Protein: Maleylacetoacetate isomerase
Amino acid sequence: MKLLGYWRSSAAYRVRIALNLKGLDAELESVHLVKNGGEQHLPEYAALNPQELVPTLIEGDNEFVLSQSLAIIEYLDEQYGGAMMLPTAPKARAEVRAMALSIACEVHPLNNLKVLQYLTNTLELDEDAKNAWYHHWIHQGFSAFEKQLEKHAGSYCYGDEVTLADLCLIPQVYNANRFKVDLSTYPNIRRIWDNCHQLEAFVLAAPERQADAS
Amino acid sequence: MKLLGYWRSSAAYRVRIALNLKGLDAELESVHLVKNGGEQHLPEYAALNPQELVPTLIEGDNEFVLSQSLAIIEYLDEQYGGAMMLPTAPKARAEVRAMALSIACEVHPLNNLKVLQYLTNTLELDEDAKNAWYHHWIHQGFSAFEKQLEKHAGSYCYGDEVTLADLCLIPQVYNANRFKVDLSTYPNIRRIWDNCHQLEAFVLAAPERQADAS
Structure:
């Protein structure tokens, strides 16, 4: 099994945590998202992943090629078992998915590399306006997430087991810290960040621990 | 079962199709996204859905309240059975989820109401720049999706059964048509649009068929 990713990609980071929690061995291969205009746009990579995004999971000799981090994580759960990223009861599974999607569909898509590049290159926003954009969507998303946590959180986002919701939250918090977003009004988010970082699976998946970090 | 939505919301439209395909009866209740600054921001609604987005699924007397269209659709599959929106084999399920997420995480979040409002109100973009933004993300997403379809499509996005991928594609095409995006270079997308509209479940879920359409 091979995971094509990039140290700073939040989506690849989610999958790295899942692989660690499930104890699955995957070869991590770097696709540099910035160098030479972005290696994700090279024809060889685009043939594997037409969205030209990371991560991509590959099994065998390109026998099975899968994109989209949440699809990859649910696949790992369904195909490999082990520690599960979703609870078993339908209502609980649904609530965890909703929390995960509230990051993956509402926050991350607005703040990822391709969007920030459009803001700079096409809309010609200055750094202040770009930062304001970034902070706006983080605060909107995290305010709503914090309310979900008040209802569902235990040690982690949903009760006392790590779930897909934590796998989405932690990389987004990492990213928010990088952009110096003030998270003081989100006590549950900060607490869950601390709790997750007691676990080796999260620590080892962190961007700065990856071989391609620079 | 009650679905709080809005006729023009792509996310609510996805769930309406699923309810129809599964033959589930749900009371549709309108949350007007524009009138009075948006009814989704009213305290009563925000208490149910802290993201202040539609749709929200409600069972019983607010006993179970669920947000996020993809979480809702997977919940309906897991809880109610009937026509299934995902295949049964893990690899096929994963590929369908990846296709659905490539719309739900890469296209729709960039073109929904809250983002278009930010472009107008905060970035003060004119209509041309806003349209260019809209078209850019549709073309980027649909180009990649068309390549996925070359690999996976039959009568529908993934083989000859309707799946979650179709439920995400059709509302996005509806939206693209509304913004006059030229779809002539996406023959598979147009073909699947036509095929889906042979099915009553899609026809009856269309925005202009809803009671709150104006």
In short: The two ends of chain B are 25 Å apart (CA to CA). The mean pLDDT of chain B is 97.
